[in-house]
Predict the 3D structure of the following.
Amino acid sequence: MTEAQFIPKPYTSLPESGTVSWNSPSNIALVKYWGKHGEQLPKNASISFTLSNCLTTTKLIYQRENTNTFNFEVFLDGKRELGFEPKILKFFERVEVYLPFLKQFSFKIETSNSFPHSSGIASSASGMSALACCLVDMERSMCDTEMTEEFFKQKASFLARLGSGSACRSIEGDLIVWGEHKDIEGSSDLFGIKYPYPVHENFKNYCDTILLVDKGEKQVSSTVGHNLMHEHPFAEQRFQQANNNLEKLKSVLERGNLSEFINIVESEALSLHAMMLTSMPYFILMKPATLEIINKIWAFRKKHKSNLCFTLDAGANVHVLYPANEKVMVRKFIENDLSVNCKNGEFIHDHSGNGSEKI
Ligand code: DP6
């Protein structure tokens, strides 16, 4: 696939008005995307579990209007959210060539999240993937030839990527690869694909409890962090490390090797934050509670011979990952010992899921 394949043929008819709604989940990367080039192209391949409960719900209400400009308003939980509009405008500008109807409508984008905005839970991933699904669904209703389900997902992922890189991994589940990788057939820099190889039972319905350490706005956005990889002294080694880790994960996923899974996943999380510590300017997104939680997880794992582990995104929150058969034991540990390190004792239980859904 190339970019050109996402440019549609002229539409036969444009509707006067309509509404379309989608739910889309967040995702948690096991091998991290950190560093990009060109138009939202990743410097290395990444893989993630799609989540289930951490969702964005987006309703797109459209009305025919030929103003020849982008005409939209964004509402978060029913209130106009001007803060989101520059990002959506940039997104519309980027995707206009692939969705040439955009300037012929006015849009009301009503969105809500099941989790705090800008908390390090990838609200841009769920938000941009939900919006991309709404737009491709709208386009589908204007095409005279039928759009296959496969093309729908590819185009939604392709567009979501142009909004936020990690968003392209939220359209489907439960394991998604984004970025061309020599050992993963069909992998592409342009969109996410379902992980195409056998996955052991151990990794089915994998659990992720997100510990909300810090619910405030991040001090450094992901976009700024990605850009700092351009002049980064360890960039090339990091991109190589990520691709090697994805290669190693292939047999780990097939054999159900939980201890090797833990090594790769925790090393990826710490390597991601090591890139932040060694950027210029450098920055730290972890908080003291993040480190306390990590130490408690390590102690618990040793003491109980458990297979829980942690990962981090670009924030202070900790994702606690564990196999479904350890759910009772790990959740008790989270409630009794880890919730004290969370802001207002808050955490969200989630697990791997299947991606975006039309409402
Ligand atoms: C640390 O997808 O938020 O979560 O493409 O600039 O929108 P943009 O960045 P974004 O980066 C998230 C990176 C990460 C790791 C990951 O999800 O792979």
